[in-house]
Design goal:
140 residues, Aminopeptidase, 4 helices, 31% helix, 40% strand, binds coenzyme A
Length: 140
């Protein structure tokens, strides 16, 4: 993901999420040197991911596939790429947060063998207040 990709990423993010990341979240991620990737098909954005690497841990901060491109293995491809990048940078574990109500996200992470290791209460904004996050982890 480069600065030139941010317009398309922000537009997709706003389509996908009720509480989307802001443009600033993406530009800050690039400025901080996070591992950020766009997946394109015939030149069009179909997915993107942002991961923070710190010592031996990789923290998956955003993984999204556009609605019309889902269930075709794009998230799986992005995740496998992130695993390779993380391992290459010395990470031995990947962590992420997911909403308990997010069936596609939970389905994807279960498919890859992530297990729930904890819960962060009130982590996410929700329409009726706050929603907890499940913390999931996978040994790399
Ligand atoms: C979650 C998401 C990234 C999955 O993207 P995708 O490209 O459709 O995923 P894949 O095609 O690689 O799916 C791989 C596996 O994940 C699981 N999975 C994917 N979508 C699922 C769903 N809606 N329900 C249950 N399991 C699902 C399945 O096991 C699937 O394998 P299968 O298709 O052979 O059954 C996508 O639905 C998305 O962007 N959702 C909104 C954003 C989001 O919630 N991101 C995760 C936030 S933590």
């Amino acid at each position: 993901m480069r600065a030139a990709d941010i317009d398309a990423v922000v537009a997709a993010e706003q389509d996908i999420y009720d509480f989307p990341w802001t443009r600033g979240n993406f530009t800050d991620s690039l400025a901080a040197g996070y591992s950020a990737w766009c997946l394109t098909e015939n030149g069009r954005l179909v997915g993107y991911a942002v991961m923070m690497l710190a010592l031996d841990e990789a923290h998956l901060l955003n993984l999204s596939v556009l609605p019309e491109a889902r269930r075709r293995g794009h998230a799986s491809g992005l995740l496998r790429h992130l695993f390779a990048v993380a391992r290459g940078r010395g990470a031995t574990r990947m962590l992420l947060e997911v909403r308990p109500s997010n069936e596609s996200g939970r389905g994807l992470y279960a498919h890859f063998g992530f297990t729930t290791i904890g819960e962060r209460r009130g982590y996410y904004q929700a329409h009726d207040g706050r929603e907890s996050a499940l913390v999931m982890a996978l040994d790399l």
